[in-house]
Design brief:
There is one protein chain. The chain has 180 residues and is mainly alpha-helical. It has a two-stranded antiparallel ribbon. The N and C termini lie far apart (60 Å). The relative contact order is 0.18. It has 5 helices and 2 strands.
Length: 180
């Protein structure tokens, strides 16, 4: 069985309903979201804190739903593929729950105190890049669902606080970006 089609050899790929160039901003966003879920997977594989894994799996599944939604042209997208607002509410609740358990210093910190925390910080920066690509696409009129931008904006906050929760497992205070 062959795992490639060779249809993209000329620099084009398929959205569901349209053939587009691989440099199309919609494909750029889909790629950034794919990178995000992979980076989250790396963070999940490295994380030791038990409560982190299930939250990250849920976020990865949400990203797959967003990718499915964005892979359709507006004319062909089924309503069932729209990310619902309650997924943004779920993110907000998870951020609040983890924030209640973690003490944050009143200044910037340096990522890298633990392997798991560092991996989640990388995932956070990749998620921010995906968010920026989504904003570009939204401004071009290609993001019909405002929940996507809201979700991506919250996702980086979740990844930040989960990285701090992972780092807190060591019992050490976070390393501050500015020496006192």
């Amino acid at each position: 069985m062959r795992i490639y089609t060779a249809k993209g050899d000329e620099g084009q790929t398929d959205l569901l309903g349209e053939r587009v160039g691989k440099d199309d901003p919609r494909i750029e966003l889909l790629g950034a979201l794919d990178e995000t879920t992979s980076a989250i997977g790396l963070g999940r594989a490295q994380a030791r804190a038990a409560s982190i894994g299930e939250r990250l799996i849920a976020a990865q599944r949400d990203l797959y739903q967003i990718m499915a939604e964005l892979a359709f042209t507006d004319e062909l997208r089924p309503d069932a593929y729209r990310l619902p607002e309650d997924r943004v509410s779920w993110l907000e609740a998870e951020i609040a729950a983890v924030t209640a358990e973690v003490t944050l210093p009143p200044q910037f910190i340096l990522p890298g105190d633990t392997v798991g925390g560092a991996a989640l910080d990388v995932a956070r920066t990749v998620a921010r890049r995906a968010e920026r690509a989504a904003v570009v696409l939204d401004r071009a009129g290609h993001v019909a669902n405002p929940q996507i931008l809201r979700y991506l904006n919250r996702l980086s906050s979740l990844l930040f606080i989960l990285a701090r929760a992972e780092d807190a497992q060591t019992g050490d205070a976070p390393r501050l970006a500015k020496e006192r």
